[in-house]
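Lab notebook: predicted structure, single chain.

Context: the supervisor wants predicted structures on file for every construct in the current expression panel, including those that have not yet been purified. This is the next one on the list. No modifications to the sequence; it matches the entry in the shared construct table.
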Amino acid sequence: MDGLISALEGSSLWLLGLCLLLFLLLMVQLYFVIFVHGKLALHQVRSREAIPERQQLVPLSVVICTRNEEQQLAKNLTALLDQDYPAYEVIVVNDRSDDDTKWLLKDLAEQNAHLKIVEIAEHVLSQSGKKFGVAMGIKAAQYAHVVFTDADCRPASRYWLQHIGAAFERDRKIVLGYVPLPSKKGFANALIRFGHFYRSVNYLSYALKGNAYMGLGQNMAFDKALFFKGKGFASHIHVRSGYDELFVNQHATRQNTAISIHKEAHIWKSMPLSLGDYLQERKFRKQAYALYRPGHRRMLNLQRSSAVLFYLALAGVVIVEPTAWPLTVVGYLLRLIAQYAVYIPIATKLRSPRMLWYLPVMDVLHTFYRKS
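Prediction complete. Output recorded below exactly as produced.
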């Protein structure tokens, strides 16, 4: 400590400037951890016993858009058709599949009256990626509230829709859910899951803060009146991805958005085939990110850039004055302790406690490659 005091007393302007910058960046980072992510840490998850009577739950239309995913549908669709919910339908939009998806759906429809199939004709040429199929599913929905998931996703329980339907109370128009990824061996799996976990914590926390900026189409729902009021996906039809996050970004307000993160309301998604597939998904998401509201982009850019500069300032102080290392250790530990204090209850809610085992390493890696 005596060495640190001596170093600061005879410090250069560079060191003083770096120390001041480090302090300011630490305050910014603590704001995002404590006052943004802390919203999710303190959020009280409603149990199924607290859900309103079944007759009060709104009817739901579940929409899945698929192309050449016969095996995934065979594996997961029965769990969607077997939900414990008073009134719902499942709409599968078959987007020009050339495998046996058509016949699988035909057989399932004969056994399940609440399964509706929408076929996109072979001659239809769509440059809008998945958005055309999603729009077809929304238009085919007979109910006012539409829920979205994918063929490679499976509900954690038969009560998924009960939690989604209950979240529409108090005139909510958008409901955002959580999509955990399965744990597998390997560094790539850990990196992908940590990035996905952080991104989920971020969008769920901002939704609770009244500033929702995105959602995941594997587990989200909205009032389809919003879709038609906003003229569908017309404003971003030229972007291949982002039907889910851009819809939320454009239509979410402080009052109309809720989250549904009970463990029974989770939707498990298959892992990307490889790190390359995951990076390709991120590339498409960046295209959608460019169309976020300016305020949301500024918010997310500040969050990321302050984290990057925080780590660089830590290194800068040590390089300029090695004897000042205790200062960097204190700054780093303050942020890390705040992260653990906030993320432990969040990871418990999201059934992902192992995410925090390697937080110090993954946080550094994720800070320097994440976009939002």
